[in-house]
Amino acid sequence: MAVPVWATAVEVDVAIVGAGPAGSTLAALLAQRGVRVALLDREAFPRDKLCGEFLSYDALPVLAPLGIVDAIDAAGAPHITRGRIVGSRRTYEFALPCAARGVSRLFFDDLLLRTATSHGAIRLDGTAATTIDATRVNDIRARAVAGAWGRWGRFDQQLGRAFVRDRAHRHFGFKRHYRGDHPRDTIDLYAFPRGYLGVNAVEREITNICGLVHADRLAGHRGRWDAFVETISREEPHVGALYARQQPAQEGFLSSDPVIFRARDAVEAGVFMIGDASGVIDPLAGNGMAMAVQSALLAAPFLLRLVESPAHRERIEREYRRAHRAFFAKRIAWSRRAAFFLSRPRLLDAALATLRGTGVAELFLRRTRASHEDVSALAERWFC
Ligand SMILES: Cc1cc2nc3c(=O)[nH]c(=O)nc-3n(C[C@H](O)[C@H](O)[C@H](O)COP(=O)(O)OP(=O)(O)OC[C@H]3O[C@@H](n4cnc5c(N)ncnc54)[C@H](O)[C@@H]3O)c2cc1C
Question: Using a 6 Å cutoff on CB, does residue 131 contact ligand 1?
């Protein structure tokens, strides 16, 4: 493919670090408007990624106008319409208000990156960002820089972000793909002490089992996830029964960098943060990718203003911080409350015994997601 003339220059309007759902969505949105965008990722795509791979329905109004929803449906991503919370002795079932999707990160992230490129973003995957400030990434000069490097990266230390020092609340994730009999329209959440598992189908008849566990529980397992799965299977027979029904479809487990849920600033040293770099919702909410793409849509108009009026930087930063807090802070807090119960199977059982018929799952879904009106209004303002 011919390289645009300006792609050889080291100057762009917006440089974005990280081509996960946040970075690639932002690149696509801005490039679609004619903004010159460079999108860096340290990994070469397609690449796999640890995730539950449950794409919440409130991401769809952002992704549909980019053609992403049609593309994942064409790839056979299952429509997920039901949920089950599985405690030691009780199961709680609920309906989702709209169909979510199960989609592998290998496919989804690559699709988003290709979409951004098709709109004209310069694709620099396989290129790690090593130096950054408000107007520069490596040797690329930009009028604005967006940080989309996920929940944990080298710049978090370099920028002195407070959450990096938190050692008491560290969690780790683990995932593996399986072939088994999991219903394609259902997401299950299984409790085990100080952690939980999410189970749902993705495209190609695959079932993904992805867990999150407090770091304290991993002492003695020396990073051996198969040994840890044996431990929780012994502790919780329902977890053992789940794994017994599956055959691995992927060599080994993928695991994550530390997951820390402390609050983060949406602008650090002039860098506009989006996705997990701007705030991490507990994975049990299944809303991290939705927040990532929504934060890209939220940030896009601010970055556009900054490109056009660099002299107004201070005001634009202040307004973005405020808009980010209003859109995301409450759902992050709600997700942590629910995670407290889900990682304590006995307490969860007691709660499930009293909660049946109270609509508590529906309340949780509402509180941990953007309302259809809010996200559609955001999308309409940008796309119309
Ligand atoms: C156990 C677990 C289960 C989860 N399950 C779900 C789920 O089912 N549904 C859901 O919606 N969310 C889930 N999440 C959350 C979801 O994975 C994240 O919210 C989402 O990936 C955030 O997207 P992002 O684009 O902000 O960051 P990421 O997807 O983390 O992407 C960041 C990118 O930045 C790149 N990068 C990092 N540093 C550099 C650098 N220096 N230079 C260049 N590139 C760099 C990385 O290579 C990466 O590609 C889960 C999380 C965990 C831990």
Answer: no
Question: Is residue 145 within 8 Å of residue 17, measured between CB atoms?
Answer: yes
Inter-CA distances, 319 with 8, 39, 270, 289, 295, Å: 33, 24, 13, 23, 14
CATH of 5-52+63-76+104-166+261-341+372-383, one of 3.50.50.60, 3.40.50.1820, 3.40.50.12160, 3.90.1150.10: 3.50.50.60
- Binding site membership of 289 for ligand 1 (Cβ less than 6 Å): yes
CA angle 60, 331, 109 (to 5 degrees): 40
State phi, psi for 74 to the nearest 5 degrees: -65, -30
Of 152, 164, 276, 294, the residue with max ligand 1 atoms within 8 A of its CB, to mutate for a pocket test, comes to 276
Domain range summary for the chain, segments of one domain joined by +:
5-52+63-76+104-166+261-341+372-383
CA gap 71, 184 in Å, rounded: 18
Residue nearest to ligand 1 atom 49, measured at CA? 20
Give, for all 384 residues of the chain, the pLDDT tens digit.
444 444 445 799 999 999 999 999 999 999 999 999 999 999 999 999 999 999 999 999 999 999 999 999 999 999 999 999 998 888 999 999 999 999 999 999 999 999 999 999 999 999 999 999 999 999 999 999 999 999 998 999 998 898 888 777 789 999 999 998 899 999 999 999 999 999 999 999 999 999 999 999 998 887 799 999 999 999 999 999 999 999 999 999 999 888 888 889 999 999 999 999 999 999 999 999 999 999 999 999 999 999 999 999 999 999 999 999 999 999 999 998 888 888 888 888 888 888 777 788 888 899 999 999 999 999 999 998
Entry pTM: 0.95
Ligand 1: centre distance to CA 291 (Å): 11
Ligand 1 atom with the smallest distance to the CA of 275 is 26
Going by the DSSP 8-state scheme, the letter that residue 80 receives in this structure is E
Closest-CA residue, ligand 1 atom 33, reads: 18
* 355 Cα–ligand 1 center, Å: 33
